Each structure stands twice: as C-alpha cells, then as structure tokens.
Predict the structure.
Amino acid sequence: MITLQERVHGTTPPTDWRLNKLHNLFRVRKGTKNTGMRENNLLSLSYGRIIRKDIDSAEGLLPESFETYQIVEPGNIVMRLTDLQNDKRSLRQGLVMQRGIITSAYDALEVDKDSDPRFWAYALLALDLAKYYYSLGGGVRQSVKFSDFPNEWLATPDAQTQKSIADFLDRETARIDQLIEKKQRLVVLVDEKRAVETDKMLFGRVDEGLMQASKLKFLAKTISKGTTPSTLGAEMASEGVRFLRAENIWFGIVTDSPQHFISDETHQIMARSALEENDVLVVIAGATTGKSAVIRKVQIPANTNQAISFIRLWKPYLAPIVSVAIQTRRVQQEIRLTSVQSAQPNLAMEDLGNLTVPAPEKNEAIKIISELELSDKKYRTLTDRVSNSINRLRELRSGLITAAVTGQVDVATWGQKGRADRCLDQIEEAFA
C-alpha cells in the first residue's frame, strides 16, 4: 500500500509508523462564524505563518465584514487553497497559535486529538513545498477545498515521536530562520551603503559645483508614455514585438521575463510609443512607480503600455546617468512627494519632466558611468553571494522539514552528531 508521503516525496516510512486516512486525521471546522463580533483578534496567513493584524487599521476591510470571518483556535491549521495556478511561490498553510478570526475563504483544520498539530503543520508544509496542492488544481481549476483532497493513506508516527519531531523542527528551523534574518539585514545594509555611494557619485559633484544639473524636460526631446493595445481594439500576441510592462522594469534592468508580445501590425499602429535604443524607461503608475532602466539595442523592437514613460534624450550618452539618478534617494523622495497617492501612486508627465538630474559633459559622463558600473558590479557580487547563501539555507530548511516528517532523520541523534551545525557551517563557509 503506497502512502501519500511515498508518492509525493519518494520515501519509505519507518516500519513502526502506522497507517491512517487523511480525512481521519484532519477535520474542517464548521459552524464557527464570528456572528455578533464575538472575537476581534484578527489573524492573517503570511508566508507560512499566522500573524496578528490590527482590526482597526486593516486596509480594504470594514469592521462589520468581520462577522463573516471564522473563529479559529490554537492548534488549528489554516490552509489557503485559492489561485493555485497563478501563485506558486507563497506558502499555503500556517499553525494557529492564538484564538482569533481569519477569512472564511480559507479552510481551518482540526487535527485528530491524539496527534501533535505542530507535526502535521510541518507535514502539510512538506506537501506544499513538493507542490502537491497544485496538482489538485490542474487545468483551469484555480481553487480547491480540503474536502476535495483524495482520502489517501498517511504514514503516522506515534504521539511521542510526533512531539519529538515537532520539537526538533521548531528548534532547527528557528536556528535557520535566525541566520536567514541576519543575512537579510546584511542585504539591507549593503543596499543602504550602495545608495549612499551612488548619491555621492552623482549629486555630490552637483552640490560641490563640480557638475551641472538640469530638469529632465530640458534634456529630453521626448517624454511620453505607452498605450494599452486593447484601447485601440488590438490584442496581445503569443509572439512578435516585445511589449514591456511595469513588471519588466526592475533595479536598473529591463528584464526579459515575464514576456509579453504584440503583433507587428499592432506595433505599427502604436508607432508613437515604439521604443528606441537608450530610451530611459520609468514606471509612472502602480506599486513600483519610480523604477527606471535603459533599454538596450538587443531589446529592440519594443513597445510599452501606459504605466511606463519613455524619455528620449538629446544626448543619448546621458541615459545611464539619468536612469541611475532617478533611482537615487534624492530623486525618489521627490517622486514620492509629487506622485498622486490614491489606491496606487501615479506620476504625471509634467512632474517627471520637472525632476532634476545631473547633466555632465560627455567626457565627464563617460568617467561617471565607468565608476557607476564598477560600483554596481561590486555590490551586485556581494548581494548575489548573500542571496545565494539565503537560498541555500531555505533549501536546507525545506529539506530538513521533509526528511523529518517522513522519518528519514533520526531526530534523537541528529543534534548529537552535529549534522545541523556542519550543514550551517558549510553554507557559511561557501559564501563567506
């Protein structure tokens, strides 16, 4: 008889683990609506954890809507099984640690009374990490309910073993999480140092009177924005001319992913917003307003939509300097002050044109661009190393969880043998 763990993880359970059916171990809570606002401790599922939120400042929610929420208790496991095909990155379950309310769009599971909820929260997380849930939402099916899960056999350790495994994972994942948090703080510090250095390279020279500055509108022969094809009666295509959206502008780079295309015919109709080499692209609407990059020759032909402005300079050699300057703290602060703040920021063409940026002569510009490239390479190398280390730690965390809940790790001897310490040391040494 093949268990769910064997089929998903390819592991053989220990011989002393008994078999049980999935729907015997878990029961979806019923009849727990928050009618009459009996509970106001608002909870939310975020990256595999249940966190508390302030009910008075919850964005987009009115207090009376919380009566439709469900009450959950410590030890419940909350599962988010919506949007399966479009969102494959975030973790979809969390263990409830305090009584509260959470959206009824999620399933709240009660665990068999003889089981340790922590163990099964980790076991469900291992299925999530193995992308098991997405197979249940195959094709056009975007969402499922826990009741849709096949009633498969699960290999189940006894209560004491469940507790030992849960204690082990609580301890070891906490150690890994602390190290990840430490490295994430390092990335923030590196980014701050990089920002200070970039600001000094550009506006330091301006402040000292060593370099001229100018409003963008005096440097540009064109400041315009793109168009959404559907407003012209056109549709997106599966291939053809590259079509850029705000998500393609990120940290000074025009990314090739995700890919969007329009037909050659649509590109001709939208000739006004056909991009040229060295156009400076700036996101002017949405959450990433202010992001900027220069489009390269190899990315032409290309077009863009109304969320991106393109700046075509009289002196194309200024493009890299203008793009970097727009992303400095000084200019970003100006953008935040001038952009319209409604549901999403929105930067008007006039305000974009009034931004002040350095405008050196060609020889000085070439020298500054070289300095910027060297600085960029230095900091990217450092942040890439730290990011790789973080990814390795996350892989170790995921692998450890899967190995423990499938009985592939002897949690009683793992710590004594120092295996966790050696794994962490090896990751640290590899990226020191």
Notes: DSSP finds 13 helices and 23 strands in the chain. The chain has a mean pLDDT of 88.
